[in-house]
Amino acid sequence: MPSRIPEETIDEIRIQNDITGLISEYVVLEKAGRNFKGLCPFHHEKTPSFIVNPGKQIFHCYGCGEGGNVFSFLMKHEKYSFPEAVRVLAQRAGIPLQDQKPARQLERYEALYRVQREAAHSFSRNLLNHPQAASVREYLGRRGINEELIRNFSLGYALPEWDGLRKVLASQYPSDLMLESGLAIKKKNGNGQYDRFRDRLMIPIYDERGRIAGFGGRTLREGGPKYLNSPESMIFHKSRTLFGLHQAKDEIRRLGSILIVEGYFDMIIPYGHGVKNIAATMGTALTEQHLRLLQRYARKVVLIFDSDPAGVKAVMRTLDLFLASDVEVRAVVLPQGEDPDSFVRKKGADRFRKAVENAPMLLDFIRDRIVERYDLSRVEQQIECANQILPMMMKIRNIIERNAQISKTADVLHVTDVSILQQFKRMAESGTSRIEYPSRARASASMPILEQYLIKALLKDKRLILGVKDALKLEELSSPLSRKIVQELFVYSDKADFEAQIFDAFQTSEAREELSMLLIRSDEIVDPARTVRDCLLELHRKPLERATRHVSIRVREAQEKKDVKRLEELLEQKNKDLVRKQQNRPQKKKEL
């Protein structure tokens, strides 16, 4: 069992990892007053509702309710346990954890990345130096891939041997790790294993942090699959990885746009010709995970596909993914027989950039492809075409954008906007293609408003916490979560960065979401001292009101039973409660 990390070390790690800097590695943040704002990485949204508060070192999303500090962000985003998040952030800040044994899962992650890195080094040495790689070097030269590009993308060569890589790595890495990494395959008879990649041009696949997660292998010979990819593993998922993003991300951020192509060389060749804001999918359609990844770097996406039917279908499949996002997406279909690789090599980077600049919006592109199928001189064909197009528009959240698309569609169909709107309304009323986008944000229904205000005031001015500790009994708070938060405020109030530290006391995501919301909204409190005073008076008054109501019920019962002695006792108790209630009432300010 790993020993417990000292609280002082955890505090130091938290302090040395600025939350704005950490989150900006995942999310495009823009200044918004004292805070930073961006699109939430935990759910799809069109309008940014994800807030980072550098002063309090916390984040909160008003759309889905997620919130916390640097540790909880990493735990949520990377699926780390708390010790794993602490270790990663310690490494990021250069803080040694000599006494800590790495968590088993994190150690396995690191071992997988190490073996992939060593494999890449071996493949690279083969390509640059081995006589058997001469034909591969010639092939790369013919495609315009020079030594600089080879080194930039760490291209390599797997020797045509059944155990060429295993012989190099066997002394350092166990056989089970070779299998798990996808570099080796178990023999069918169960005895031993052999190299997955043999006699192939090797293309390392980096994750966005610059770690090699897998490989693509291209054969230069006839027979067998043209490309062979690493299998899915703990560290490699094609559905959430974009090839070349690591090399291109700085240029993508600078330009605010990203070009998406299909395949390794469709990314590498344009990149080598100076088109550096480009990344590629790897044999899969774009996924929600890809979209989240894209949104961290740019708000403008250009999809570039081959002109064959499969390429056009691939573009059309992406529509639903992008309509509900805040990403401006355009589509380019290259001339017949061309792909980004061949187009750039034949016509040059400037022509390629021009095609990108003239790219239509994705919805316009898809609408044009649909319209091509119909004879719009016939009314029934107009209706059928409209029924194909309008469901797409119903998914557009932005009303202005939706109305603009309705006008464009009316022009294309040679009908009036009113006709389109009427059809749109009928479809909406009938529920056809209705899309609902429920918010995951909770309305804090479990925590009374009064208790929310008290906590926000204490978070705004922690100097008030000590006084509340003396004046308030926790049982006066009706919400268990309120009691837990206030109790932890009593514990953490003397900490310098208690806003960030207090998150570590809460184990459930619901509690952290509620706390982050209260922390962010604590700035709404104008006069914390007065708010605390008013809240305490109200909280003290409520038990008295309950007691008074209880006594009134008992008085009626005593009157009905004609129990004179009991009636006198109850009336005396009621008078005492009224006096106490009067004493707890706020005093009016004297007139000046």
Which descriptors apply to this entry?
DNA primase DNAg catalytic core, N-terminal domain; 5 domains; four-stranded antiparallel beta sheet; 592 residues; nucleotidyltransferase; globular; 27 helices; DNA Primase, Chain A; Dna Topoisomerase Vi A Subunit, Chain: A, domain 2
Structural summary, described in words:
The chain has 592 residues and is α+β, with helices and mostly antiparallel strands. The protein has five domains: 7-93, Zinc finger, CHC2-typedomain (DNA Primase, Chain A), CATH 3.90.580; 104-236, DNA primase DNAg catalytic core, N-terminal domain; 240-367, Dna Topoisomerase Vi A Subunit, Chain: A, domain 2; 373-430; 442-592, no CATH class. The protein is built from 27 helices and 15 strands. The strands form four sheets. It has a five-stranded antiparallel sheet, with helices on both faces. A four-stranded antiparallel sheet has the order 6-9-10-11, with helices on one face. It has a four-stranded parallel sheet with strand order 13-12-14-15, sandwiched between helices. The chain is globular, with a radius of gyration of 32 Å. Mean pLDDT is 83; it is low at 433-445 and 585-592. Residues 256-337 form the Toprim domain. Belongs to the DnaG primase family. GO terms for molecular function: DNA binding; DNA-directed RNA polymerase activity; zinc ion binding.
